[in-house]
Amino acid sequence: IDFAEIGEHIDQPVKTYSSGMFVRLAFSVIANIDADILVIDEALAVGDAYFQQKCMRFLRKFQENGSIFFVSHDTGAMMNFCDRVIWLHHGAIRSQGDPKEVCEEYLAYLYQKHTGVEPVTSAQLEEVETKAEVEQPLNVSDVELRGMPRPANDRGFGDKAAVILACSMTNERGHAVNAANGGELVELRIAFRALSDLQSVISGFVVKDRLGQYIFGNNTFAATTDNPLNMRSGDAAIARFRFHMPSLAPGTYSIAVAVASGTTKDHIQHHWLHEGLIFASHTTIDTGVLIDIPMLEVELVLASRVDHHHSVSSSN
User: What is the pLDDT at residue 131?
Assistant: First the structure.
C-alpha cells in the first residue's frame, strides 16, 4: 500500500481504478513478493516521475540477484536497462543480441515503415560510396579534405540519394581527436555527395554513449533556414560544426553522422551512419553523471554565516 501511493483509492473496487492506478498497484505487488524472475510488459512509464524513479531503483536492486524479462517499444529504456535484446516481428525473431545494435536495427525499420523508403544495407551503401568516389571525386579543395578519413563503421541506413564519404573531428591545430578531456575546442566535419537532385539538404550528428543513448548533437537546419542548400546530382558538400567538447564521464563514445533533406520534423534520411566516429573520454568524473557542467560558483557555508559571508564578499 505504501509503495503504490494511491491513497484512499486502495479501499475502492479495482474495477474503478484508472489504468495508471491499476499498474501502480500491480507494480507494488511485484515489489513485495519473493521471486527469481519478473516479466514486465510496458510498465516502466507508469505514474509520475517520482514513482518511475522508485520503480527503477527497485528493478536495478532486483537485477543484482534476479532476472527480468522486459517487453517494450522504448529503445532508450532497452539500451539503458537490458543486457540482451530480442526483436520480435509478427511472432518471429527478427534480430537478437547486443541491445545497442538490435535497437538501431529496429529504428532503421521504423524509418522505413513510416517513410515508405526501403533502407539500404551496409553492403549496398559501401558499393554506392565506392562508385561515387571513383566516378566523381569530391569537388572540394584538397585542403578541406586532408585528414578526413572514411567513417569508422559502415553500419547505417538511408535511401542513398546522398552518401557520406568521410568525417573527422579535429582540435584547434587540425589534429584528429581520438580522446577528449572536456573543454577543448573541436571541429566536426561531414563530407557527402548527392547522387540525385536534392532540395533543402540537412546534415547533422549525435554523440552517443557505449549503450547507444543520445547525449548531445546538432544539425545544419537552423543555420540554413534563410538560405537552404540545394544540390545537383554529383555535387559534394561538407558540413562543419565547431564547439567546446563537454566533460563526459570516462568511457568510449560514438558519433552518428547523417545527411537528409527536408526539415527536422519532416525529412527523408539519405544516409545515417551509426558510428561515423569513435572517441574516448579521459575525464576524472566519478559522481555517476554523464556530463559535468562547468559551475560559475560553488560554496558551502553555515546558514548563520551566509549574510555575513555575502556582505564581506560584496565589500571586496
Answer: 55
